Amino acid sequence: MSENSLSAVDDLKRSIDWKQGLSISLGVPLLILPSLGYIPLYLSAAAILIWGLSVVQGFFQNTAYAEMATTFPKASGLPGYAQHIFRTENYKGKYDKGKLIGGFSAWSYWFAWNPVLAIFAILVGGYLHGLFPVLAETFTEYQLSLLSGLVIFAGLFVVNWFGLKDGAILGYILAAVSLIPLIVLAVAPFATGHVDLANITGNWLPADWTWDMHHVLILFGIFAIAQWSACGWETAAIYGPEYKNPAKDVPKALYACGIICFFSYVLVQTAVIGVLGVDGVKAEPVSPLIPVARAVFGQAGSIVTIIVLIAAMVLIIQTAYLGSSRAMHSMSAEGNLPKVFGKTNGHGTPFVALLVTAAFNMVLISLGSLAAILAAAAIGYTCANGISLFAYVRARKHPAFAQLERPFKAPKGWKHVAMLFGLFNLPLCLIGVVYLNSLEIGWTSTWLGFIVLALYIPIWFYSQRESRRANHEPAAAVPFLARDPDEDAAALEELPTGR
After folding, report:
1. Bridge partners for 108 per DSSP
2. Contact 236, 61 (CB under 8 A)
3. Three-class HEC string of the chain
4. How far apart are CA 245 and CA 39, in angstroms?
5. Can you tell me the distance from the alpha carbon of 252 to that of 242, in angstroms, rounded to the nearest whole number?
6. 368-386 per-position pLDDT tens digit
7. N or C: which end of the chain has fewer CB within 10 A?
């Protein structure tokens, strides 16, 4: 990141180690919850394989991101890498197209993470509606979703106001409350003998599955939805500017989170299908863990499960809230968003970005469609990953970046791996998710995704004009010298002394 961009906004503080970064990212395994019953609708028990492959895909992609995090330690995660790599140094024209590409990648990433807040606020409202009859008599499920979002966003804003370190402490607490019981729910059915492997081996793929173009496009769309959940642990690299030792902390946080994700995603989906069968999952597509808990622990277990899941949802909202705000801060630092979004308080927290993120998600909650929001977010995520992987290839090949110090370096030839997965995201997964959306919920989510992404264009042009005005302000601040020598001397005396 250039000195100009660094001085444009307040600096983030280096205050966390890899364990704290991991604690914040531990919300990512919980991203399986919205899709736990969705993917089996299309692929039956093969959903287990999809989750495993998607996490492995994350290892390939995130290895490239880990290298970029240590090569560009002042850039903030995927948004910062793409912006830094694609911009043209010392560009003399009005609009740098490379900078626009990098900024669009960051905006796509912001839009991919942002709806997590709305999605899980809607789920919290739904669970509360089913858990407490008093609330169900007083509020509709929609009203509880709005209220849940307002309370959760306000509470997390207060916590994060005091800096990322306190957000990590909250992550530790919520991880203990939610992740451990989630793992218990994944492992207990095996220990108690409730998992019937015949439910998996006998229903591996739907009976009508064929490898024609229709089903291949569905498969690409499923991978797009799955990677939105299973590859999201790159969020550990988002906090690159805030790690005490990025060279060591970033890879440790990334790979530790990836290993946790692999086992949790595969085990949870296997347990759910093994206990309920594919038909049982289809009967409970939104909350299949509840009947699993009833089968293993009884009625009391189902109540505990809902409470645990609500705590888990708060954790993933915290992860997304921090990631989204850092993405906006990074875009502002690079001049790809108005400077106001880069403002930080005395604790180094980008509070304006936090406020905008919360307000945007309250609008999304008001749409009332969880499926449409999730599908739109997947469109943003495929765009962000594709462009970021292409940025890695450019960073390895371009003379301006090829000789930079890389404290962590991916294996030789990794630029070819990055190019392969970049093309997998763009265009294959993007086409697939648009096709899948058209079959599942019409064109609402596709239009929502593309409209939000397109809004970045006018915002970016405004940001460029703002930057040009800021660059001319120092010259404009010097008093214009009059023609009369006495007036000139008077004007010069008014200039501030000292440096």
Report:
1. none
2. no
3. CCHHHHHHCCCCCCCECHHHHHHHHCCHHHHHHHHCCCHHHHHHHHHHHHHHHHHHHHHHHHHHHHHHHHHCCCCCHHHHHHHHHHCCCCCCCCCCHHHHHHHHHHHHHHHHHCHHHHHHHHHHHHHHHHHCHHHHHHCCHHHHHHHHHHHHHHHHHHHHHCCHHHHHHHHHHHHHHHHHHHHHHHHHHHHCCCCCCHHHHCCCCCCCCCCCHHHHHHHHHHHHHHHHHHCHHHHHHHCHHHECCHHHHHHHHHHHHHHHHHHHHHHHHHHHHHHHHHHHHHHCCCCCHHHHHHHHHCHHHHHHHHHHHHHHHHHHHHHHHHHHHHHHHHHHHCCCCCHHHHCCCCCCCCHHHHHHHHHHHHHHHHHCCHHHHHHHHHHHHHHHHHHHHHHHHHHHHCHHHHCCCCCCCCCCCHHHHHHHHHHHHHHHHHHHHHHHHHHHCCCHHHHHHHHHHHCHHHHHHHHHHHHHHHHHHHHHHCCCCCCCHHHHHHHHHCCCCCC
4. 39
5. 15
6. 778 788 888 999 999 999 9
7. C
Over the stretch 316-360, which tens digit does the pLDDT of each residue have?
Answer: 788 778 778 877 887 888 788 999 998 888 877 889 999 999 999
Say how far residue 268 (Cα) sits from the centre of its chain. 21
Task: Please identify which residue in the block is written with the tokens 């945007």.
Answer: 360
The pLDDT tens digits of the residues spanning 233-260 come to 887 776 666 788 877 888 888 899 999 9
What are 226's two structure tokens?
Answer: 């799955």
The structure tokens 């069968």 sit at: 277
- Cβ atoms of 14 and 232 within 8 Å: the answer is no
Distances, alpha carbon 424 to alpha carbons 31, 386, 429, 446, in Å: 21, 8, 6, 19
Sign of the CA dihedral with 71 first, then 74, 77, and 79 last: negative
Residues 334, 329: Cα–Cα separation, whole Å: 9
Q: Residue 247's closest CA among 96, 63, 448, 71?
A: 71
Residue with tokens 């505990």: 304
Q: 16 pairs with which residues across the strands? A: 243
Looking at residue 268, its pLDDT comes to 95
| pLDDT > 50? residue 484 | no
Res 201 pLDDT > 90: yes
Q: Distances in Å between the alpha carbon of 106 and those of 59, 81, 99, 360, 382?
A: 21, 9, 11, 17, 12
CATH of span 3-454: 1.20.1740.10
Among residues 384, 373, 377, 376, which one has the least CA distance to residue 425?
A: 384
pTM equals 0.83
